[in-house]
């Protein structure tokens, strides 16, 4: 299961669309950036630049959990994980 920390913005939607297209199971955690929730210590532990989107993949490399932030890095990670949308 992939935990997605996100909000309804274009950068967030990039990751939502990729997860849907890859058919990966995921759970969304809304981070209301208008209310300042991106500055909560629990979120900063996952996304130290206080920006959505971010993910935690409990089944990361070698079965270990991994957290990622930056939408481009997340897209590349999901593409590599699934072998989809990458040459
Ligand atoms: N380069 C980043 C940009 C992410 C970004 O700008 N996120 C915005 C929403 S689209 C955000 O979380 N802003 C909250 C803040 O800067 O405090 C990416 O592609 O993930």
Written overview of the protein:
It is a single chain. With 87 residues, this protein is α+β, with helices and mostly antiparallel strands. The protein has a domain of 46 residues: Glutaredoxin (3-Layer(aba) Sandwich), CATH 3.40.30.10. The protein is built from three helices and four strands. It has a four-stranded mixed β-sheet, with helices on one face. A hairpin with an 8-residue loop joins strand 3 and strand 4. Helix 1 runs parallel beside helix 3. The longest helix is centred in the first third of the chain and has 13 residues. The model has no long low-confidence stretch (mean pLDDT 97). The protein binds glutathione. Glutathione (GSH) binds next to helix 3.
Index terms:
87 residues; Glutaredoxin; 4 strands; four-stranded mixed β-sheet; alpha+beta; 33% helix; 21% strand; binds glutathione
Query: What ligands can be seen in this structure?
Result: glutathione
Q: Which CATH C-level class of the domain at 1-6 and 48-87 is it?
A: Alpha Beta
User: What is the name of the CATH architecture of the domain at 1-6 and 48-87?
Assistant: 3-Layer(aba) Sandwich
State the total count of DSSP E strands.
Answer: 4
Rg (CA only): 12 Å
* Biggest sheet descriptor: 4 strands, mixed
Q: How would you name the CATH homologous superfamily of the domain at 1-6 and 48-87?
A: Glutaredoxin
Number of distinct helices: 3
Task: Please write the string of helix (H) and strand (E) elements.
Answer: EHEHEEH
* Through-space gap between termini: 25 Å
Broad shape: globular
Task: Report the helical percentage.
Answer: 25-40%
Query: Strand content of the residues, in percent?
Result: 15-25%
Q: What is the subunit arrangement here?
A: single chain
CATH fold field value of the domain at 1-6 and 48-87: Glutaredoxin
Average residue-wise pLDDT: 97
Spatial arrangement of strands, main beta sheet: 2-1-3-4
């Amino acid at each position: 299961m992939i935990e997605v920390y996100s909000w309804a913005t274009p950068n967030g939607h990039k990751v939502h669309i990729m997860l849907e297209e890859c058919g990966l199971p995921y759970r969304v955690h809304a981070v209301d950036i208008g209310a300042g929730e991106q500055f909560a210590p629990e979120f900063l532990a996952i996304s130290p630049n206080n920006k959505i989107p971010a993910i935690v993949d409990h089944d990361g490399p070698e079965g270990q959990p991994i957290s990622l932030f930056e939408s481009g890095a997340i897209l590349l990670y999901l593409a590599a994980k699934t072998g989809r949308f990458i040459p």
